[in-house]
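ok so for the tutorial part 2 we go from a plain amino acid sequence to predicted structure tokens. step 1 is just haveing the sequence, like this:
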Amino acid sequence: MSKATKVSWKCGPCKAQPICSGNDLEELFSRLETRLESRLNETVRDAVRVEITEQFSKLEKRISAVENACTSQESKNVDFQQQIDSISAELAALKNNLGAGAQQCETGLPMEEIMNEVRDRQRRACNLLIHDAPESNALSPLSRVNEDSAFVKNVLLKFELNFDQHVSRINRVGMRTTGKNRPLVVTFNDPSTVSKILAGNRARSPPLFKLTQDRTIHERQYLEKLRRELDERIKAGEVNLTIR
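step 2 — the prediction. this is what the tokens look like for a chain of 244 residues:
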């Protein structure tokens, strides 16, 4: 292109000189800035719109989960209320039974005697009586205790129990009499051990040892009463009777 042509040439769209003035550049940059801001705003709006949509979806899910939890809790509350009603009914029945029991106590044994009996049974619950344990003739008390301990260890081995683990103490009861063995009382750490030994001994035929619970005076009297009644009923012709 010649120099004259360059000087006289104008662009087609605007017929302006190819060399723009400062104002033209400022206006051009202003338009570019406006367009960039517009596009940027649209991008930001789209991003914000997507983020809000995602958060709203998450919020809906959480609200739905809370509603489900509330529904489940309401169902549990109904069950809980039913349990409370059932317990209340049982307590009312128990209260009535206690009232009837109190009336029986008033016409029977004194309350203090009943409480003493309960405490005595609790104290004896860990005791086991061995009636066929040979009694040592050793002069030394320590020697006699050692012989009794050895016998008890042998008894416990029959029921797969360890002496040191389960036994807290042993002692003889009653006055020492020549030619007669006093019962040997074995005190265990837990009443369940006594029950296990008694059940295991009864299961053997015949029983391995003569073992009994450590009963109170009232228990022994009641058991004797049951035995007399059993004898009378057997003599009267009744069969298949036993004391449980």
